[in-house]
Structure formats: structure tokens, C-alpha cells
Amino acid sequence: MDPACPIATAVGVNPEGRIAAVGDLASCQRQLPDAEVIDLGSDVLLPGFVESHSHPVLSGVATQPPAYWIAPYVGYPTWTSVTDLFEKLQAEAPAGQALLFNGFDKLLHGAPPPTRDVLDRYFPDREALVVDNSGHGAYFNSAVIERMGWTQGPPPDPVGGSFGRHPDGTSNGQAFEAPPLMLLMEALMPDLVPHPLASAAQWYALMAGNGITTASEMTYNSSQKQSFEALAQLPHCPLRVSLYHVSTAADCAGPLESDVAPEMLCKQGIKLWADGSPWVGNIALTFPYLDTPAVRAAGIKPGVPQEMNYSREQLDQILDQLAGDRLQFDFQDQSSICTQNWQMAIHVNGDAALDVVLDAFEAALQRHNLLGTDHRWRLEHLGAARPDQLRRAAGLGVYASMGPFQFQYWGDLLDGEMFEPEQGSQWCRVKDATEAGLRPSYHNDGSVSPPSPLGNLKTVVTRTTQSGALHGPEQRVSLDQALRAQTIDAAFILGREHEIGSIEVGKLADFVQLDVDPHDVEPMHLEDGISVQATWLGGERLDIAAFERAAGVSDPEPHRHLATAVVRRCC
Fold first, then answer.
1. Residue 388: which H helix or E strand, with range?
2. Cα separation of 301 and 435, whole Å?
3. pLDDT tens sequence across 259-297
4. Rounded to whole angstroms, what are the CA distances from 190 to 18, 98, 184, 375, 549?
5. In 463-565, which ranges are continuous DSSP H helix?
6. Where are the alpha helices (DSSP H) in 415-478?
7. How far apart are CA 319 and CA 322, in angstroms?
8. Partners of 220 in beta bridges
9. Are 49 and 59 in contact (CB under 8 A)?
């Protein structure tokens, strides 16, 4: 990923874990004459993959044992397969044991979101919490409502979220967006996941097994600090993490005070949610959902949705509070990584919501004299973004983290079932974003989809879905563009391109070791024709099993298959 040296045959690493030489073996040995030589044979090193938008601790807690991952592409393709699991667990789990499920998807499962009444039929006497695969909804039974003290009704809707209610004001067992979800998870965590560090470590292992060495946490709050610090200090920790604090937290403007080295854990920005998820229907669009069986079965109302989590006035207030009169962020100065010059990162899927966000961004950047500076404010996902919006964002100096998984798993529904082909076939316009100058990076968004950079490469290069169907071929990008989006461009949007993202002298020696050069694989086999052999962090080949054991995972072997190419084949 270094244009000055696109391909090399040797790399030298100094004792500090940084790259000291790149070239051929002889030139590297001249600079490091006493270094051990490790011959990788025909294997290929790339910079470690970078996941620019993720939720590593929350994803581990929500999907790894003792939680149950019920997403359609990890073994539960239908609602019947999910309810069969419910019945099995109700019969076999110890009496009173609380249960956590993650991955319900009303479009792919073909069922409306469960209510308290539905879940009470399966779990009449134990707490059960089901998290939507989008991460934007949660569904729970009467036992949870009693535990939360909501028998007379849930609390008032928080900013950026809402609770489902019956006409009499009592809870219907549903909640939407991050603030209510965090409230439920924090209250129920001791019973649902008694050892969250071990659960999180399993997700770290899953990411590392797919070649990821750096990620972000896009829903950070201070209650997670101890988990991130503990994981970062375990032997063979495979993941560097950049934190983005949720804007709803009272302390979101403060710095991260930690003894952990900033190369492993740093705070980078602030996260907001402009709208919700296309799979839930709570987004803001200028075009309608179609009136089709798939849309109706999912409980989504046909027509043009206009659901925003913030008013324009609220966005202005938050941006003013957190942009303030701070000095321009210097992304090249390592010492400023953890200062209070925060990046703004806004989740936005709908094009109507993006119009509001771009207006708010432009006005705030003007008010705070940031236009024309290297502020690197961010847009997340951009599923329905139009070409004119992508060009406008680039003109504001804004960058994009995009989710090809939205097209990969839902593309067949998006094109003609959910929306007219004019919009649905163009969902996730990675080519338009690249040509606009947005320098897009790619992500899998934590537990929303398996963390598979190779799957992202295949999706954007071929523009095919999981079924193999081709939609919107004009949005295909080249393999080199896709590789940049998973490495150096993802490092750039995290403000870390000076230390990761390419194999260059002075950078951290983070690598993914592949058995095949992606350029030598047919594009349709970029996902299943390449295997990750190892990941390296700071020049050290990682022992992921040792990391999991140190985190308290009693027997990591039953989950090892999830951290290999098998996760790509089974999905």
C-alpha cells in the first residue's frame, strides 16, 4: 500500500515493533544484520486490515457464548429456526437463567419484530433479551420489564432513542436506538453475560482470525473503559482500538485518561446517529419503501419514511458543544491523538437524513472556522447516499466509512423488493464515493455482519450479493481501490495513517499473512479462495489461543472455526 514501493520481498522489524526496512532480503539484512530471518515461503504479507467502524467489546458480549448469535447468515436463516432454538433453550437451560440473543432480522428472517407477548410464549419465566441484527432495536419479555421496574411503563424517550408502548403507555417489549439499548444491556449484563471480558476476547479473536489488526469502537462510553484496558494489556492482544464516544454521554467531551499505550487504545472522536436502519424502517429517505410481501412481512410501512433521531437544532447544539473553539486537529502529530480535538462521526443511512447532516456539518464547520482544515469529520454507512451528496461531502473535507455488507446480505431485497431498482441497485455507492474523493473505507459494523475484509473485497470488486446475483455493476471498484479501503484509507479516516495502514519504514509492523496474493485470485473467489494464515502486531506473530486463555475463555477450541475462513464459507 506504499505507492513508492508497491511490492517488496522482505520487511525488517526493529525491537520496538516498527518497520525498519522494506525491500529485498539483502537490503533488509544490511540494515538489521543481527535480526532473525523468518521465511514465509509463498505466503503474502499485507498491512493488517483496518476495521474503521466497529463495536468489538459489545459485539463479543452480544454474540459470543454464553450469548446466542441468531443472525440469518450464521446458521439461523428463518424465524422458525430461531423459535426452535428458543424452545430448546427454554426446555434445557437451568431454571431462571437469563438469555441473550443477537441477530434478529425481520427482512431476512421474514417475521415482524417480536413483542413482549410473543417472547412471553417462549420464555414465560425467565428474562430474555433479543437484539436486532441492525443494532438499532431490542425486544424483551415481561420478566425483563419487571426487572427494569417498567411495569407501569418505560421511562420517557431519551434523545436519540425511543421505547415501544401500548396505547395505555405500558411497554410492548420493544426499544429502538442506542440509548435504550445501552440502558437495557448495562442493567441486565451481570445475569446475561457473567464474564464479559471472555466474551469480548472471543470477538477480538474472530476479528484477528480474519486479518484485522486495528478497529474502532463507535459506541464507546466510560463504562467500557476497564474492558478495553484489560484486553489491551493481555499477552498477544490482537487489536488496536480507536474510541468514538457516544454524544449522549455526559462526559463525552473529556479525554481518555489511561495508562495503556495510545498505540493500543486511544480516543478519537464523537459518535452521533442521524437516523436508524433500512432493515428496521426508521430512516429518512426521499423515496419510498415499496408495498411488497417482503416489506409487509417485516412490518415496515410502505411509503417515504422521515424518521430522524435528532432535529437540525439538536445537531447544531451538539456540534457546537463538541467542536467548540478547539484548535485544528493535527493528524500527523502522534501526541495529539488523545486530545479533545474530536472528530465528529455521524451514522446516516437515508438520503433525506444526509441532506440534514451535510447542512449541519457545513454550518458548524463555518461557525468554527474549520472549513478547509484537516478536520476529517466522518459519515458512517451512507447506504442511500446520492452522487451529488457524495461530491458535496468531499467538498467539505468530510470522509466516509461505508458498509458493503449492507449490499452483500440485503442486496437482493434492496433491488426491487424494498425499493425501486433505481435506488436499490445503487445501494452503497462505493464507486461514486471513490470518484467523488471521499476516500471511503469499508467496515462490517461489529456484530451486524461477520468481520470479513475479504468478503468486503469480493463484494465491491464484483458487485455481487451472497446469492451470487449482480446488481448495479457500475458501482464496482478495482481490487487495488478495495485493498486501499481496507488498509491505508481506513487508517486515514481513523487519523492513524502515520503509524498503520501500509508497509513503510517507521510504521508499526502490523501485518496480515495470506496464503494467496489477492491479485492472483478470480474476483468471485476473493472471499473463499484466500485464507488468513496469521496476524502480526508490532512484528510479533500472534498466538490467539493464548490471548483467549488469558482473557478467561476456558476452552477456545470450540470457537476456533469462527476465526478462520470457515466463517466466510458458512456465511
1. helix 387-395
2. 34
3. 999 999 999 999 999 998 999 899 999 999 999 999 998
4. 40, 10, 11, 39, 21
5. 479-486, 488-493, 544-550
6. 421-424, 430-436, 453-462
7. 5
8. 245
9. no
Chain-centroid distance, C-alpha 440: 14
Residue with C-alpha cell 407477548? 117
Residue 424 burial (C-beta neighbours within 10 Å; 0-12, 13-18, 19+): buried
Helices 351-367 and 387-395: crossing angle in degrees, nearest 10, is 10
What Rg value do the Cα atoms of the chain yield, rounded? 23
Q: Whose CA is closest to 266, among 494, 47, 61? A: 494
Query: What does pTM read for this prediction?
Result: 0.90
SS3 137: strand
The answer to whether the CB of 218 falls within 8 A of the CB of 201 is no
Instruction: Dump pLDDT digits (tens) for 39-68.
Output: 999 999 999 999 999 999 999 998 999 999
- For residue 277 the three cell numbers come to 436502519
* Phi, psi (deg, nearest 5) at residue 137: -155, 155
Q: Give Cα 226 distance to the centre of its chain.
A: 20
CA–CA dist 130, 137 (Å, integer): 9
Three-state DSSP class for residue 254: coil
**Whether residue 124 has a cis bond before it, omega within 30° of 0:** no
Question: What CA–CA distances, in Å, run from 301 to 174, 491, 494?
Answer: 17, 39, 37
Please name the amino acid found at residue 396.
L
The answer to whether the CB of 450 falls within 8 A of the CB of 567 is: yes
pLDDT per residue as tens digits for the range 362-399: 999 999 999 999 999 999 999 999 999 999 999 999 99
Report residue 168 as a C-alpha cell: 395505555
